[in-house]
Every structure is written in C-alpha cells, then in structure tokens.
Design a protein that fits this description.
Blueprint: E1 8-13, H1 16-24, E2 33-36, E3 44-47, H2 62-68, E4 73-75, H3 79-94, E5 100-104, E6 107-111, H4 122-137, E7 141-146, H5 149-156, E8 164-166, H6 172-176, H7 189-197, H8 203-208, H9 211-218, H10 221-229, E9 245-256, H11 259-280, E10 283-293, E11 298-304, H12 312-323, E12 333-344, H13 347-356
Parallel strand pairs: 2-4, 7-8
Antiparallel strand pairs: 1-6, 1-7, 2-3, 5-6, 9-12, 10-11, 10-12
Helix pairs in contact: 3-4, 9-10, 11-12
The chain binds magnesium ion.
Length: 361
C-alpha cells in the first residue's frame, strides 16, 4: 500500500440549533422545540429530540410540524450564536489536526492519521474532543470513527445522540450491506429513487449490481457508488475554502417546454438552495438564474438586492422575477439553476425585516 490507512473522525453536534436554544433558555428544556419560523411558508431548521417522536424533522414545513405536534414551541433561529459555537468547536478540532473539513456549522470531518496530540487510539481522540465540546460549550456531540469519510459519517449516526462508534478497517462492507442506499451521504433522494427503481434497495444490492450497468445509469458517479458499496472512499479531507456562492442546478430527464413545469422546478431548487443557506448560516444579496436550452444555448440573469434574502419565499420570488421575462418559453429547457452570491450574515436581513414593518412611502 502506498499510503497508510487513514483515520477519519466525523463529528456531528446533536440537534444543534435546538440544543443551543435549550441550553440558553431553561424554559425550553425537556420540551419539543423547533427552530424556525411558524408562519405559512416557514420550514423547521432543527427539531429537539423531544419533538422527534411526534415525527417532527428538519426541512419539514412548519405547518405540518405544528399539526403533528400541537405543543411544539417555535423559536426563531439565532445564527450569530450558532456561528459562535461553531467557531468554538472548530478551535477544539484544531488542537488535534489542521485537516478539518466542515460540512455545515455543526458537522466536520477530521483527518487524524497524524494527529498533533498523540493518543492511544482514534477512539480516545474522539472521546476527548466530545468531552471538550461538552465542557466548553455545554452541548453534546456524536462521533464516527473509521478509515474513510463515507464510513465515518455513517458511524456518527449509529450511537446518536451523545455517542460514538467505530467502523474498523475491513468492516466497512459488512456495515453498509444492510443499510438502505437512501441513508448514504452522497446519494440524494432523487438518485435513491432511481436506484430503487433498478432494484437497488440496500448496500448489498448496490455491491451486487454490475458495475458496467451502474455506469450506464449514473455516469461518472457510478465509481463512487461502487466504492461505497464496498466500504471504500478515497476522497481526502479537504480543509475549508471560504464559499463565494451557494447554488444548485438540475438537468431534467426530459427537456421542459411548459412554463408551469419550469416554475415548479424553480420552486424545488429554491427550497434546496435555501436549505443550504440555513445550514451554513449564510444568505446573499445577488440571485442568479441560469437556463440552458435543449440546443445548449445558455443564458443567465441576475439581480442584486439592497439586503440579503431572508427566507425561501424571498429567494423564490427573486428567481421568479428573473424567470418571468423569459416566458413563454421559445425553446425547450434542459437545465435550470439558481445561485445566491454576495454572501453575508443573515443578521443584516433581520434589520431589514424591522424596516419593512414601516409603512412604505
Ligand atoms: Mg448535527
């Protein structure tokens, strides 16, 4: 082997936003809490463990969450506090390794193959990190320890909350075999559905599937899927680069020609992009729409606002505003994308919220 077996820890804070709110407000402890706005278009950003038995989940519309759990307490998000805690846990990670790759404010991969502080095992390091997080922030975290990123992330879910789990070298393939492919990080809901339609339900099914057929269906991504089914993942831990934009685009299975289909597609994209903004505690002032026709001609339209978008509805509104002049469609569309840039603190946005309560001139 040309390189030593990697040792990767995935750290994931437990019900992060909700736990921070319960930490800072004792009246919320022991109660079902949803961080998010309760209004019509609101979405649950995080649910406390007390809310989960009711079927309340993050990314769920607030109205549905309220229906499932009438005593649910909604708390507006305080991203500046979450970012401060995120910086605290990042500082703890940095005592052990410079190779830290955050996935969001509350999750990160750490490569501790050559740790800055030697300990008997990766397990011992994960335990120390979790103990330090609890001592310094008052919050619990879970950890997954393994020989690659894919397995470490799966493992951190295994003994959640406030637990950790190791998948040792050689054990990855057996660990993933019984799990549904929809549980795999890197396989999104749409891909999972396509796999299910091909008869691939579990890791074992994915492993047994002919690699060549897999490639025909999923192109370049097939190599990654084939690897993870064998418990293999060669991606290195890549330390964070500051983000300049957050966006998503989608290539349609069939080109779209009807305006209403495009509106609908934009709605789905806006939802995903906003979820990404919330996860990272970011928003932005510039919204860009990208549209590629079936003949590969492409156009982009953008607008810049005075203040960052505040919520999913505002993002969608901006996207629709950019799309409207392009309708009715002249040519069918194969790709649609929406991006938020000029990123900044969404706190600037809550200032704008105050202003918008004033009667407009
Ligand atoms: Mg978490």
């Amino acid at each position: 082997m040309t390189q030593p077996v990697r040792r990767i820890i995935h750290i994931d804070m437990d019900a992060f936003y909700a736990s921070v709110e319960q930490r800072d407000n004792p009246a919320l402890r022991g109660r079902p809490v949803a961080v998010g706005r309760s209004q019509e278009r609101g979405v649950v950003a995080a649910a406390s463990y007390e809310a989960r038995p009711f079927g309340v989940r993050s990314a769920m519309p607030s109205l549905l969450a309220q229906r499932r759990c009438p005593q649910l307490v909604f708390v507006p998000p305080r991203f500046e506090v979450y970012r401060a805690v995120s910086a605290q846990i990042h500082a703890i990670f940095a005592r052990y390794t410079p190779l830290i790759q955050p996935l969001s404010l509350d999750e990160a991969y750490l490569d501790i193959t050559q740790p800055l502080i030697r300990r008997a095992s990766a397990t011992a390091i994960a335990q120390e990190i979790r103990a330090a997080i609890l001592a310094e922030t008052g919050l619990t975290a879970s950890a997954g320890i393994s020989y690659n990123k894919f397995l470490a992330k799966l493992a951190s879910d295994h003994n959640k909350p406030n637990g950790q789990f190791v998948i040792p070298p050689g054990a990855g393939q057996d660990f993933v075999a019984p799990l549904p492919v929809s549980a795999f990080h890197g396989i999104g809901p749409a891909t999972a559905r396509r796999m299910n339609a091909l008869g691939i339900q579990t890791g074992a099914d994915l492993r047994a599937f002919p690699p060549e057929t897999l490639r025909q269906h999923f192109g370049k991504a097939a190599a990654f899927y084939h690897g993870i089914a064998h418990g293999e993942d060669t991606r290195p831990v890549e330390p964070d680069r500051p983000r300049k934009s957050l966006g998503k685009e989608t290539t349609f299975d069939q080109d779209l020609i009807h305006d209403h289909d495009l509106n609908e597609a934009l709605q789905i994209l806006a939802e995903k992009v906003w979820a990404g903004c919330e996860k990272r505690g970011l928003s932005g002032r510039t919204i860009t729409l990208k549209l590629r026709h079936a003949d590969f001609s492409q156009l982009t339209r953008s607008l810049s606002r005075q203040t960052p978008v505040r919520d999913q509805a505002e993002l969608l509104q901006a996207g629709l505003h950019l799309l409207r002049p392009l309708l009715p469609l002249q040519k069918s569309v194969r790709l649609l994308g929406i991006t938020v840039s000029s990123l900044c603190d969404p706190q600037a946005a809550s200032g704008a919220e105050q202003l918008s309560l004033l009667p407009s001139a």
